[in-house]
Every structure is written in C-alpha cells, then in structure tokens.
Design goal:
about 475 residues; alpha/beta; 7-stranded mixed beta sheet; 15 helices; 24 strands
Length: about 475
C-alpha cells in the first residue's frame, strides 16, 4: 500500500491525515493544538506539525506529503533564515488603515485588475505595510516573505536558520493569490505592490505548478516528495472534489461562499476576492462575519440546544410568518457594514413565536450566505450545485431550509478534514502525475424546495 499525507495547519490546530493512494481511505491521523491569538511565533506551528506527525505514527512509510494552511499570515525572515517577529495572522486587524492607504495609492479598480482583490486587513500586503509604518527597523531586516504553509514546507524540507537557503522557499498559486501582490491570471508576483507595501523588494517563494514537487531532505533518505501545498479554502475545495459549477458554502463561526471557476474574478467593490484554486482554475470567494454564531445566540436566547432549535424551526412555515432576522450581530463584511447590529423585523402578535424565531435565525443566516452567492454570480460564477459544509450544515433543519433558500441542488458531504484531504489528494497528484479519483461520502441531499418568499422578504429589509 502506497501512502500519502495531507496537513491542515489552521489557526487553531495542526491536523495530519495519512491516506491510501489508490482509494483515498484514511489510514491514520494526528493532531496538535496551536496557541490562540492574532499573532503567533511560527515556531509554535513547527512544533505542532512535528507533534501531529508523531501522533499520526510518523512519515517513514509515506511517499508524498503536502501542507495546506491558513491564508494571508505574514512570516518575515532575515537573510539568515530567522523569523524576525511573530507572524500576523489573517484575523489580525491592526493593518486596516494600511489597506485603506494602499487603495488610496493604487485605486481599487487597479488593484482588482492586477491581483484579483481589493485590500482588506486580512491580506499579507496590508500587514507588510503596517510593518513598514509601525516597525521600520524590523521591515528593513526583511529578506524574504512567506505564508504559513510556505514556511512550514521550507522547514519540513530541512531549511531554517541552520540551513538558510531562502531560494528554496516554494508555494502554490492558491495561497499566493491571497497576498494581494500576486496576479492569479498571469501567475506572477506584482513587485511594485510588494515594494509599496514593504518599502523594498524581497525574496518571495517560487510558485510551483499544480502537480510539481520538491524533495524533503530532512525526512528519511530525502526521497519523499513534497507537493506545493495550498491555502485552506482551496485545499478544502480540492478535498471535496469541487469542479466548475460547484459552490462551496462553509458555515463555521463565520461564513464563506466560494466556487471553482474557469475565469478570474476582478471585483473592484472588494466584495469578491479573486483567489486561485489548486488546479489552475480560480476560486472567487465571499466571506461573511456572521454564520453559526447566529444559531448559537438564538439557541441561548430560547434556552434550547441546537437540535431543539432545528426542531422548533421546522415547526414554522417558510418565511417565518413575516419574521425576518437581519443577522449582523458583529457587524458584517458582506455587505461591508462593520458597525451594524442585528435587527428583527416583522414582529406581530401572530409572528412572534418560538418556532418562527428559530426559523428566522436559520433563514437569516442562509439568506446572508445567499447574498454572498449572488455576489459570486454577478462576477460570472455559474452555480449548478451547492456543497454545504461546516458544523452547522449537519443540522437537519439547516439542510432542509437551505434547499428552500437556494434555487440549485444542495449536497451535504460527510464531515471530514477536507483541507488535509485536499492536501493529501495534491500529494497523490504530485506522486503519480494523475488526479486521484477518490470518492466523496455524502451525508445528505435534501430535495430542491425553493421558496422565494424567504429571500424576497429578507432582501426587502436590506439596509
């Protein structure tokens, strides 16, 4: 049996999944935690990766590996290969003004045309501008800039302060497309934007082709292949075998709506981020701040579990008798309303019931994600199937109501570590030069039951 390994180095933890090359079956797994915070010493990721590999039984019998990781994080290295300061993560917002400054200098339309994205605080370019302005001495020391998965791949291959070959940094186009100084249409870095952000040029990881590989000198006899890796959303899309026409809606603490597309997105409004995918296509993405937390809050208010919330919701009719929850509990990113609050509309003696409130919470959450889908469609995305993932997607009421909110079929994959699965699938591709056809397990496929009233009354309340 030939084995391949996939890694998901996420914000919270590091997961290692080892799979059979031929069938994709999971053979063994490992896990280790990451420290909390919006800035982290990358050494903690390296320690966690080693622990997770050990927890998974090691890599001695693994033929190829790939690392998927959280996007955007800024890892800055000096000429000796040492990390200069803790990495700023995607969720560190101190670079919000830097994003506004870059937009003012280049223009939103120009940045969207050149990189597929308009800067927001999560992107790497804004973090480099913050470093230039807030810590100029550290910025001056920067010899190379990497993303979390780039740096871990480099370390896994035996490089670091004791072997500081910065030219051996490698990445893939999906993660590079989240920096805001990479053009996913030409697959080239935009050095002018990098210099404007950091203040000077620097070494950037070489962008590998989708099925290209390098070797890992630090493991065994050095013959293990290391695939390019991926950003987390692109890894997840690859892990569930998403293709053109598929839209992935992920319902976690926040929400993401992204799709595999054959054409790049260039949205100068900044609503759609024009990322790249793992295969050579594109992965336009919309993020919302409010998703599963909407259900958490409503369940707590009603004094019920999530299962009980779902049962209550299914006791109400579609449209919740006119009760509409606009769920901007923590502001919102899509639409861009950072200071907004949630609002409950349509309260009457008839509509204000526990079942209607439970349903309005689920409808509001899904309607917000439907607005994200509409933004993708306005940028040329064709939606033929929705793949609903994330913890909340397993709630039967969420599945049933999703089939009423969206006009296209909804499929719910069985829960799994899909970023790690995508990384393992990429490792298999690099090893065999053939895309593996691993089966996707489906947990649910609710029948299409579109009820236009849900979105009609939700959008009538748009602010």
């Amino acid at each position: 049996m030939t084995l391949v390994a996939g890694v998901d180095s996420s914000t919270q933890s590091c997961k290692v999944v080892i799979r059979d090359l031929d069938t994709g079956a999971v053979v063994r797994t490992g896990r280790a935690s990451h420290p909390a915070g919006t800035e982290v010493d990358p050494a903690a990721w390296w320690d966690a990766l080693q622990s997770a590999i050990s927890d998974a039984g090691g890599l001695d019998d693994v033929a190829a590996i790939s690392i998927g990781g959280q996007q955007h994080g800024m890892v800055v290295l000096d000429e000796g290969g040492s990390v200069i300061r803790p990495a700023l993560l995607w969720n560190d917002t101190r670079s919000a003004q830097a994003a506004r400054d870059l937009i003012a200098e280049f223009g939103a339309a120009d940045l969207a045309a050149r990189t597929g994205c308009v800067p927001v605080a999560s992107f790497t370019a804004t973090k480099l501008r913050w470093l230039r302005d807030a810590e100029p001495e550290n910025a001056a020391r920067v010899a190379a800039v990497a993303l979390p998965h780039d740096w871990l791949t480099w370390r896994l291959r035996g490089f670091g302060p004791s072997n500081p070959d910065l030219g051996e940094l490698v990445t893939d186009r999906s993660d590079a497309s989240g920096t805001n100084y990479f053009n996913p249409a030409t697959n080239e870095y935009d050095r002018e934007i990098l210099v404007a952000a950091l203040g000077h040029d620097a070494i950037l990881p070489r962008v590998l082709q989708p099925s290209e590989s390098v070797t890992a000198a630090s493991i065994g006899d050095g013959s293990m292949l290391v695939a390019p890796g991926a950003g987390d959303n692109a890894g997840a899309a690859f892990g569930i075998n998403a293709a053109a026409g598929d839209v992935i809606i992920s319902i976690g603490t926040s929400g993401t709506v992204f799709a595999v597309s054959t054409t790049p997105a260039r949205d100068e409004s900044g609503t759609v981020a024009g990322f790249a995918d793992v295969t050579g296509n594109y992965l336009p993405l919309v993020a919302t701040l409010n998703a599963a937390r909407i259900l958490d809050s409503t369940a707590a208010l009603l004094g019920v579990t999530h299962d009980e919330l779902g049962a209550l919701a299914l006791d109400a009719e579609p449209g919740s008798a006119g009760l509409v929850l606009q769920p901007y509990f923590e502001g919102e990113r899509t639409p861009n309303l950072p200071n907004a609050t949630a609002t409950l509309f349509g309260m009457t003696l008839h509509s204000t019931t526990r079942p209607n409130l439970a349903r309005a919470a689920i409808e509001g959450m899904l309607a917000g994600l439907a607005d994200g889908l509409a933004a993708l469609q306005a940028n040329g995305v064709v939606a033929e199937r929705i793949l609903l993932v994330g913890g909340a997607a397993q709630n039967p009421a969420v599945q049933a109501i999703a089939a009423q909110v969206f006009e296209v079929p909804v499929v719910v994959p069985t829960p799994g570590e899909y970023v790690a699965a995508g990384a393992a699938r990429q490792a298999a591709w690099a090893l065999t030069q053939s895309l593996p056809d691993w089966a996707l397990d489906i947990a649910g496929s609710p029948a299409v039951d579109h009820r236009p009233v849900i979105l009609e009354q939700y959008r009538a309340r748009a602010v």
